[in-house]
Give the backbone structure.
Amino acid sequence: MRTKEMVFAALFAAFIGALALVPPIPLGFIPVPVTAQTLGVMLAGCFLGRKIAGISLILFIVLVALGLPMLSGGRGGLTYLIGPSAGYIFSWPIAAFCIGWATEKVWGKLKIWKVFIINFVFGAVLVSLIGAPVMAMITHIPVWTALVGAVGFLPGDCIKAIIAAVVAVQLKTISPIEEKVNSL
């Protein structure tokens, strides 16, 4: 891994940690709040590409495990990696990798609507499909109930997917994906 890639991975881990400053929005019907941090996951994937995005989110989780207050509401530590939000948090590297992979596939014909769909499918739907069953297992509720509760995340996730798509397309020329494509 090149120095530039390590810097991008660290910067995005820090950026996602900074998004924790946006107060979480509790939904009330499930114990996992709406946070701005999934915006960072989407941006990491569609700006950095699969490899750097995945590494960035793994680094983020390691920093949370070490106790740094990088989760919304200034939370951090192993407790939060085994609580109701655990499945959502552990889905982030997978989502970022998948978003990066799919974005790389359409890079030559990058359009906002394509990146929006990629972000929504992998940054919203996939995260919920991983996070909700884990939350159900931890909180001892039926999986179906958890999945229905996760629908509450979709309006905010749509907005985050649009923002990430617009930003990624606007910053295409400075993306590490662009550099990788041009070096081939």
